[in-house]
Amino acid sequence: MVIFGSRLFGKCDAIPGLGYVATKFGHINFVPLIPLEGWLVVAEEGNGWRGQAISMSGKSVLTAWARFLFIVVGLGSLLFGFIAFTEMEPGRAIPLGVLALACIGGLIASYKWKWVTHASPERALEIAQEAGIGEEGIAQLRRMYAASEAATVATPAQPWTPPES
């Protein structure tokens, strides 16, 4: 059975309190093939979503394709590595195992690495403006990002002084 249609892939650039960026792809059997349009997704409802169409995000497209490749290459190298291992060919099995681990690491990183998952303050404002968010919403985003940056600023390091005896 062949499943085809369109759906969102490449979730990235999350903006707290607003949504995230994803790309609507034409797919066959859930393989993201043709990027159709970019979306700022504000809510997911069952199999659908609500949001605003925005310009296509290269980061979202590359994220979708990279995640797909990590899965395919990772599973393929794991399978062929297992076959090589059972045929007592460790010279072929070890590099394939390393490749499988690298793909697993890449897939996990694509869901955890903040550079991929969260929008920078500049990008968040750009997305919000493009989606037609009003001035009050833009000002609220600026305040939120300013507060989070102020909270992450550490106090300067103090010079070490030896304890008195």
TrEMBL record:
The chain crosses the membrane at residues 64-86, 92-111. Keywords: Membrane, Transmembrane, Transmembrane helix. It comes from the Bacteria. This is Uncharacterized protein.
